[in-house]
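User: quick one - fold this with zinc ion bound?
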Amino acid sequence: MHCREGAPTPSVDIRKRSFMNMNGTSSAQWHVDLHVHTRRYSPCAELLDPAQLPRVMAERGLQGVVITEHDVLWPAEEIAALNRDLNGSRIFRGVEISSCNGHFVVIGLEALEDLQPGVPAKRILQVARAQGAAVIWAHPQLEYRQMVEPLKSCDIPNGIDAVEVVSTATCGEQSEAARAYARDLACGMVGGSDAHILDHVGKAYTVFDRMPKNENELAAALIDGCYQAAHNGLSCSSLTG
Ligand SMILES: [Zn+2]
Ligand SMILES: [Zn+2]
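Assistant: Sure. Structure tokens for the protein plus zinc ion:
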């Protein structure tokens, strides 16, 4: 488990080792998928209906999901409405910002301010710090058209809280490379599925030792707390769709 004072640990598939109580949920560990898109605000996730998330979370033993649409923050009242169907678990709101240096998942923002697509990573960090939000470097190994200034880990501005080391876009050797980035940056390692279809929700997740009650607590846990990247038997060859 990563703690701010200690060395980050590699991600492992720990689901099978966690203690399960009679309800089928972990009594001491909280599983949160930190990176999920839905069709509500991500056109590329047209098959993922957010109304299905409570059922899928229950089926897969997830206590939390963070909805991270591309460059859109859900209105707080819409997230509150989704949470009405949940009992003891939680859907949080975050955002995945398409910076000119890559994609960053940010959790704990109340407003996007000037964080439009193409913004430099440095500006994301400034706004996140001012709002107490946590910043995760998503799928650091990917290169894509919008990323005009790819960052090497040595060029990343100080203040990244964690690197996403396992997701449906980051598996196998890519995970190893992402872990190396995290070690270079001396920051945390998280898992999030980057799901664009329901089948992928919970394929990767992050384990916390206490359940955050809201986005601010989740951001604080990512900045200061203890957590561990994990996955549900994820391998590059197992991914379809
Ligand atoms: Zn992305
Ligand atoms: Zn994504």
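One thing worth noting: The pocket of zinc ion (ligand 2) is lined by residues 35, 37, 96, 138, 194 (CB under 6 Å).
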